[in-house]
Amino acid sequence: MLAHGFSWPIASRGIKQLCRYAATVAVIVLLPISADPSESKPWGELKRPFQVGERLTYKVSWLNLTAVIAVMEVAPIPGVTDHGVAKLVGTAQSTPILTKFFPVDSRVESELDLDTLAPEHMTFRRREGKKKEDIEYTFHQKEGIVTAVRGGTTESLPMPAGTQDILSCLYYTRTVLEPTPGASLKMNVYHDKKNRPVEVRVEGVETIEGTWGQAETVRVLVIMPFHGLFMNQGNIRVWVTTDERRTPLRMKAKVVLGSIVADLVGGLVETEP
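The structure corresponding to this sequence follows.
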């Protein structure tokens, strides 16, 4: 028997669900109606809170059990000298104790146009348990079409202009969403052959503590009225710093028992020369 009276078979199933859920939270994070330009400032007036060289590391846990280590990074694209594009990289790896039950080693790469904050190309290398899948999306933003390559099959599907992918939506939100209570933002996130509507709302200002010490944050509610991206239909709360970097410090999502929590445990910013 385990703590809280769980039998081993039940706990084992729970651990698998935890890893799957934690991996999804780790990669999608702010995760995620088309974004209406009238709802935000003109692109030329926006100051990006992130820069090439940013690397954020999160510990994803459940009931004080660390399940996944997730990293989000803004990296230059090798061989590309155009500073108007960058590669967003998100990885999620299960911890050694959890790997024996449900190994996770997933990676998302998204090429982002830094002027429009819209993705151009995304690859998703999913390794969760016995599930192995490689997905590739090419976003033709002007034409309103996304080309998906999955399982050897290629298809083109319509999408609203300004559509985000499961990783770029975080960086888009950090830039566009005003850090004031009551502010909100709607966007379309394309994933798994569907356009997914996501709404983000700022609930209030809150000071939280962690390995970073004390920090003033805005508590952001991410509303996802659909199944698929997460184990259950539901919402995620994210605590984002009120400074110019708008760094996500903590993410929390309720599950059947307790909550999945992702806390920032490491961050590094290197300014480009």
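Residues 8-28 form the longest helix (21 residues).
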